[in-house]
């Protein structure tokens, strides 16, 4: 009778052991599932962080878009005082921040065109075709007409010999029309200047006539035009030393910084001491309409970055103070937005 009981005890012991094995297996399985879940959650956390980063970048872009939109609206309001056409292009060269108004429209440059002329001449200097210290004869026949700006004509009424370096200074710093016309000849004529601009990939800027020709009638000035965008592209090329060497860039920027015309335009409302390398352009007035009141330049911002800006005021019925005030206020609005 004892043997059957012993067999039964053995079976009960085996069943108990099997149950223990099942419990251990179940516990192990649950532990693995738990660990897998934890690992999975840990793996998704960076994705969540990436998602948050993208959202932040998106928000930053929205803030920047809102800021640019606000600036453009402010510029549009400022231009109402011009009582004419206004074109604006401005870009922070290091960051690409941009604002514009009628950037592709054509505006008469007037003396703004002395900048591409001078750049083309300096290119000839670098090619060894011209020397900065070579003297050039300037005769009475070269003088622009009375009423057009020419310190050379006024200082040397019988003509003179003057170096290429001084011609460049007169053209840029004093906006001398006679100097500009002599430089056009040295560059090889308007066609050579256009070829130089084409090499810079600048197409919406046209130099066709001398200052003397522009002064002979009202319409010729409109054939020597630029879009605001092209003017800024020219400034960018100058800043980046494309089409010019470092020494040529330094010389030209020096003359632009020393430029005396238009102190109430781009410079007008900016803090004293701000470095502004610029070139103005101004037409006469006929029947109460002024064809061109312009200023383009590179402004050094407080943060060390550089703002290339072009403002053209065309066909304006406003007085000079209002036209220049429009340029000054636009420059200040852009400064306030991007100088921080």
Account of the 3D structure:
The protein has 10 helices and 10 strands. The protein has 2 domains: 1-36; 64-338, 3-Layer(aba) Sandwich (Beta-lactamase), CATH 3.40.710. Helix 2 (114-126) crosses helix 5 (177-187) and helix 2 (114-126) packs across helix 6 (190-199). By secondary structure, it is of the alpha+beta class. A hairpin with a 5-residue loop joins strand 1 and strand 2. The protein has helices at 2-79, 114-126, 151-155, 164-173, 177-187, 190-199, 211-214, 228-239, 246-257, 320-338, and strands at 85-92, 98-101, 107-108, 135-138, 160-163, 225-226, 276-282, 285-286, 289-300, 306-316. The protein is globular, with a radius of gyration of 35 Å. Strands 1, 2, 7, 8, 9 and 10 form a 6-stranded antiparallel sheet that branches. The chain has a two-stranded antiparallel ribbon with strand order 3-6. A two-stranded antiparallel ribbon has the order 4-5.
Alpha carbon gap, first and last residue: 102 Å
Structural class: alpha+beta
Instruction: Give the full name of the CATH homologous superfamily of the largest domain.
Output: DD-peptidase/beta-lactamase superfamily
Strand element count:
10
Provide the residue-averaged pLDDT: 88
Proportion of helical residues:
40-55%
How many separate domains make up the residues? Answer: 2
What letter string, H or E per element, gives the SSE order?
HEEEHEHEHHHHEHHEEEEH
Topology overview:
Layout: H1 2-79, E1 85-92, E2 98-101, E3 107-108, H2 114-126, E4 135-138, H3 151-155, E5 160-163, H4 164-173, H5 177-187, H6 190-199, H7 211-214, E6 225-226, H8 228-239, H9 246-257, E7 276-282, E8 285-286, E9 289-300, E10 306-316, H10 320-338
Antiparallel strand pairs: 1-2, 1-10, 3-6, 4-5, 7-9, 8-9, 9-10
Helix pairs in contact: 1-10, 2-5, 2-6, 4-5, 4-9
């Amino acid at each position: 009778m004892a043997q059957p009981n012993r067999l039964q005890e053995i079976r009960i012991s085996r069943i108990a052991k099997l149950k223990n094995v099942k419990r251990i297996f179940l516990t192990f399985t649950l532990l693995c599932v738990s660990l897998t879940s934890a690992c999975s959650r840990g793996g998704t956390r960076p994705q969540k962080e990436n998602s948050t980063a993208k959202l932040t970048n998106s928000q930053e872009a929205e803030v920047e878009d809102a800021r640019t939109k606000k600036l453009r609206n402010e510029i549009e309001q400022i231009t109402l005082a011009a009582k004419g056409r206004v074109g604006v292009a401005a870009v922070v060269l290091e960051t690409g921040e941009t604002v514009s108004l009628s950037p592709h429209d054509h505006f008469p440059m007037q003396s703004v065109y002395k900048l591409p002329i001078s750049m083309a001449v300096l290119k000839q200097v670098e090619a060894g075709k011209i020397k900065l210290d070579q003297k050039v004869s300037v005769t009475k026949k070269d003088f622009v007409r009375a009423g057009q700006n020419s310190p050379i004509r006024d200082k040397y009424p019988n003509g003179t010999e003057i170096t290429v370096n001084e011609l460049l200074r007169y053209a840029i710093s004093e906006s001398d029309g006679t100097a500009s016309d002599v430089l056009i000849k040295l560059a090889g004529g308007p066609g050579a200047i256009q070829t130089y601009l084409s090499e810079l990939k600048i197409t919406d800027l046209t130099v066709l006539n001398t200052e003397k020709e522009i002064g002979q009638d009202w319409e010729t000035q409109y054939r020597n035009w630029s879009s605001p965008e092209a003017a800024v592209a020219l400034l960018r090329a100058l800043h980046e030393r494309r089409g010019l060497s470092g020494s040529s860039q330094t010389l030209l920027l020096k003359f632009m910084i020393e430029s005396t015309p238009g102190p109430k335009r781009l410079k007008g409302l900016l803090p004293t001491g701000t470095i502004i390398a610029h070139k103005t352009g101004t037409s006469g007035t006929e029947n109460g309409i002024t064809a061109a009141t312009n200023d383009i330049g590179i402004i050094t911002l407080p943060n060390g970055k550089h703002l290339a800006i072009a403002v053209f005021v065309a066909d304006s019925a406003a007085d000079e103070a209002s036209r220049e005030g429009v340029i000054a206020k636009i420059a200040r609005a852009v400064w306030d937005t991007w100088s921080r």
